[in-house]
Each structure stands twice: as structure tokens, then as C-alpha cells.
Amino acid sequence: MEFGQPSFTDVEYGNRRRVSKRRWVGVIEPYYYTDTKGKRGRKAKPVETMLRMYLLQVWFSLADEGVEDAIYDSYAMRRFMGLDFVVEQVPDATTLLHFRHLLEKHKLGEALFTEQNQIFDKQGWIMRGGSIVDATIIAAPSSTKNASGARDPAMHQTKKGNQWYFGMKAHTGVDAGTGYVHTVTATAANVHDLDEAARLVRADDEVVYADAGYQGAAKRPEIIGDEDLSKVEWRIAARKGVLKTMTEHDRGVESGKASVRAKVKNLNLLHVLFASANWLMRARAVALSG
């Protein structure tokens, strides 16, 4: 799951837009100032400052202490944060930790993702009619523990090809026409892709593209029994062994399916990551068209 290294010109696009910035900050504000009201210590940092710091952490996969140090070392990051070291310092790692826990507690990553999708839909940037569904294993150290000292139940072991992985799995539904992610779910890594397929398809989708791991999706009871999903045309890639026996025409059809699917390659973080990726793709599309 790689989106390429974003430039700060790219990532600033979504945050400079008044509508997106105002709505994202507005989603967090009621929870932020309620949770920090009446607590002793320094005055709470502005929501936008903390949100920008958290976004840097997500985009560059940094620990709480790591992003604090990186902002001190990087002029581009300080500029993105809007910090003037003459009058203020970078929020410390503990402050970011509390902010991150607040987002997780109130599922605000999902709320930010929903707001972003609503903006895209209202602006007419979503094409509708077709989706791509996919799943990506997010590996974690096998020693991952929860607060009780046991293995995190959200993590599990699974085998893909000839290799074993331990971790979780991100399931995504993507607008086939634009490549924007519209749905994200997360499960333990051993949950089969088919078990989440129905949750990734929109009610108005007419066709769904998927890799060979989704063979049999159209026959699943939760899909057959749904008035909207039962009408979807499932275009599932053939398994590798079958491709060798296909005619040239059939291989061309499979190649077409693959070209559409190629647009896709802890849940709170995933929602923020994919919302950011959508803004990044939109910024680059505007840059290319301009």
C-alpha cells in the first residue's frame, strides 16, 4: 500500500482549502475542548495545530517522539505546521499522544474520512457506478501485546502464498472511475477477503472488480439476499492456473480487469491515511489539468 512520497505542496492543497480545513477541525473541536476543559497545566494547543502534527505522523509513519524531533529538524514540516519558534514550540510527544488517543476514543478518524467523502461527493468528484474491492495485510511484530500482556486479539497470523504474516488486514472499496477510496474496514489478518466484500460495495454500484481471492462473491448469502448487491456484476480475475489455458481474447479481458484493479494497492489510522491519500490524488489531478 504505497502512495508515493507526498510533497508539501501536494499535501497542503487539501488543508489550505477553507471548506475542508474548517470541516475537519469542526469535527474534532467538540470532543477536544470538552476533554481538555478544566484540566490543569498549559493552555490547550489549537485543534488545527494538533491535527497537522498528527497528519505528519500518519503520512511519514513516525512515533510520537519521532514526529516532534522531525518538525524541529525540517523547515518544510515547521512551515506546514505554521509554527514560529520565536513565539511557540512544537507540541511535545505527550500532547500528541493524548490527541491521538482522543481521536481513537471517539472514532474521529472515521468521521474525518466521512467528511472528506461528503466533500468529494458534493463537488461531483466521485463517478459512481463501479467499485474495486481489495485487501492488504498490514504486518505487525509477532510480539505485539495489549495492556494485559497478551497478544492483541485484533492481530492474527495468516498465510499468503508461501509466507506467513502476523497482523491485521485493511479492506478497501474504491471508486473505479477515479481511484478514490470510499470505504475502509479492518480485521484480523486471518479473516477471509470474502467475509468483508459486501461491506465494501456501494448501494448504487453496478459492477465490482476484484482479484482472484474474491471468487464466489456473487454466491455469498449476504449478497444474494440483498436487493441492491444481488444486482451487481462481479468481474473477478481468473486464478493464475486458469490464465494459461485461456484464449488470447480471454487473456485480454483479464488484462482489462487488472488495469482497473491497479488503482488500489489500527482502523483510525487507516481512515486518516486513506482520506489524506484521496486529497493527494485530487491535488495531483488538479495540477495535471491546470
| Low-confidence regions | 1-6, 8-16, 259-265
Strand content bin:
15-25%
Write down the domain tally. Answer: 2
Name the average pLDDT. 80
- What is the fold-level CATH name, i.e. the topology of the largest domain? Nucleotidyltransferase, domain 5
SS-derived structural category: alpha/beta
**What is the number of E strands?**
6
Number of separate helices: 12
* Oligomeric state, counting identical vs distinct chains: single chain
Biggest sheet details: 6 strands, mixed
Nutshell version of this structure?
This protein is α/β, with parallel strands linked by helices and 290 residues long. The chain contains 12 helices and 6 strands. Strands 1, 2, 3, 4, 5 and 6 form a 6-stranded mixed β-sheet that branches.
Describe what this molecule looks like in 3D.
The radius of gyration is 21 Å and the shape is elongated. It is 47% helix and 15% strand. It is an alpha/beta fold and 290 residues long. It contains twelve helices and six strands. Strands 1, 2, 3, 4, 5 and 6 form a six-stranded mixed β-sheet that branches. α4 (64-73) packs across α5 (75-81) and α7 packs parallel to α12.
